[in-house]
Amino acid sequence: MTEQPSRLQMLHFARRVVVQQATAALTQIDQWIADEERREAERQRGEQAQPAPPDWLIQYGLNHANVDAVHCGDCWAAAKSGRCRPASREQVLDALRQQVPPCLHCRPDTALGILD
Known about the structure:
By secondary structure, this protein is an alpha+beta fold.
């Protein structure tokens, strides 16, 4: 017949189990933290590696021949169109002189100091 463990032995056993489970849980949480820190560092490196947006954009028509509008480089409307190419300040000024309409959202004509 085996002897029943004492209350003190059971408490020591329970403590070892809790320590083992807590250690495993902390190891898992530490791994999650390390993974998240790695992802955040990769995201930041990706942001830093991206080239700066161009100062000016020219939006072309569906046939890529007609010029539809001019935009500031950070214009959200230009980003949505998907038909824009980077342009120099001179190219944008020339397009505006040729009556190409400025974007109504970013107002490159105002940014360039051209008044109607």
